[in-house]
UniProtKB/TrEMBL annotation:
It holds the Pfam family HTH_18. It comes from the Bacteria. GO terms for molecular function: DNA-binding transcription factor activity; sequence-specific DNA binding. The keyword Transcription applies. This is Helix-turn-helix domain-containing protein. Residues 1-89 form the HTH araC/xylS-type domain. Gene3D superfamilies: Homeodomain-like. SUPFAM superfamilies: Homeodomain-like. It comes from Acinetobacter pittii. Keywords: DNA-binding, Plasmid, Transcription, Transcription regulation.
C-alpha cells in the first residue's frame, strides 16, 4: 500500500519547519502543497479522460482518490465541467 505523504513529511525531508516549507512553496508555485497536488491529479485525470475509455470512478482511483464523488466535486470546481462533459467536448 502507498503511504500518503503529508506536509509534515515534506518539511522533514526538506529539513525545514512546516511553516517555512508552506511559505516557500506558496511563493515558488503560487499554490499550497495540497492545491498543487490537486492540480496534478486533475491534469492526470484530464489526460486519462481523453486518452482512455476508463470510467471516471476508475480514473479517480488511479489519480489517488478513494471517493469518486469528492474528486468529481474538485474536478467540476477546477475545470467547470463534469467528467462526461469534458470527455464529450475534448475527446477526438
Amino acid at each position: 500500500m502507498i503511504k500518503k505523504v503529508t506536509v509534515d513529511d515534506l518539511a522533514e525531508l526538506a529539513n525545514l519547519e512546516k511553516r517555512t516549507l508552506l511559505r516557500r512553496f506558496k511563493k515558488a508555485t503560487g499554490l499550497t502543497p495540497i492545491e498543487y497536488c490537486q492540480n496534478l491529479r486533475i491534469h492526470k485525470a484530464q489526460d486519462l479522460l481523453l486518452t482512455t475509455n476508463l470510467s471516471f470512478d476508475s480514473i479517480s482511483w488511479q489519480v489517488g482518490y478513494k471517493d469518486s464523488s469528492s474528486f468529481n466535486k474538485i474536478f467540476v470546481k477546477t475545470i467547470g465541467l463534469t467528467s462526461t462533459e469534458y470527455r464529450k467536448r475534448f475527446k477526438s
